[in-house]
Write a structure and sequence with these properties.
267 residues, alpha/beta, six-stranded mixed sheet, globular
Length: 267
């Protein structure tokens, strides 16, 4: 039976991030994708122009409709801008006994803030305790840990320890905002530290990288992989998608990664 994954996130009209990136990732990795849309955004590779939230009740209804009919094996949560929506999602997760991968989308690649200030506390207290994994980049980790931007692996681990106190199962500290020839992500579950290093790819085609990584991890979990293996596979997939993104030549700003690089080349 084909594995099924659910993405709970916002829609990106430009197609590079959010629900669109998640569904592309699921499909590329051999997983049937389902969705619950939390917000509509008017955006492109140059920035976010407008955001219109979906009502909390409608978000919950979408989750219920999927989970009452299908055997969801992996869940990814992306953009959720309102505290009320976070509460509705948390209640739905408990109803269906789901442990999601949480991508705390707070700031877009283009620098636009996507999470309302009062929602940060709700994310910490309502969603983090239910998540199997949270995947913050360095600015997001600093916000979650209420500290300054990490400048070293030691500081990254210290912030991961702080975030773990929320009750989340594990933290994947993403090093994409760091410096140096390698980008190192650090997975920490409170006991074991696993490092995932890869050459840093210099490209403007980075739109949707966080969405794609977290969706790929959820796809791996839906396929029954242990967490560390799911992260390793997702990191490898994203690395190739990043390298192939420039060949697409899409957009005037921060272009998308190439989700289907294995099947068709860029033009």
């Amino acid at each position: 039976m084909i594995p099924i994954a659910l993405t709970i996130a916002g829609s990106d009209s430009g197609g590079g991030a959010g629900i669109q990136a998640d569904l592309k990732t699921f499909s590329a990795l051999g997983v049937f994708g389902t969705s619950a849309i939390t917000a509509l955004t008017a955006q492109n590779t140059q920035g976010v122009r407008a955001v219109e939230d979906v009502s909390p009740g409608m978000v919950a209804a979408q989750i219920d409709a999927v989970c009452e009919d299908m055997a969801v094996g992996g869940v990814k949560i992306g953009m959720v801008s309102r505290a009320e929506t976070i509460a509705a999602i948390a209640a739905a997760l408990r109803r269906h006994r789901l442990r999601p991968v949480l991508d705390p989308v707070m700031i877009s690649t283009s620098g636009d803030r996507l999470l309302q200030p009062d929602a940060i506390g709700a994310l910490r207290t309502k969603l983090l305790p239910l998540a199997s994994l949270v995947t913050p980049n360095l600015p997001e980790a600093a916000l979650l840990a209420d500290s300054a931007l990490a400048k070293s692996e030691e500081e990254m681990l210290a912030q991961a320890e702080t975030i773990l106190r929320s009750g989340v199962g594990a933290v994947l500290m993403k090093g994409g905002h760091g410096e140096g020839p390698e980008s190192t992500d650090i997975l920490f579950d409170g006991k074991v530290v696993t490092r995932f290093a890869a050459p840093r790819i210099r490209t403007r085609h980075t739109h949707g990288t966080g969405c794609t990584l977290s969706a790929a991890i959820a796809a791996g979990l839906a396929q029954g992989l242990p967490l560390a293996e799911a992260v390793a596979g997702a990191k490898d997939y994203l690395q190739h998608a990043l390298a192939a993104g420039a060949a697409l030549s899409i957009g005037k700003g921060s272009g998308p990664v190439h989700h289907f690089h294995r099947w068709w080349p860029g033009r």
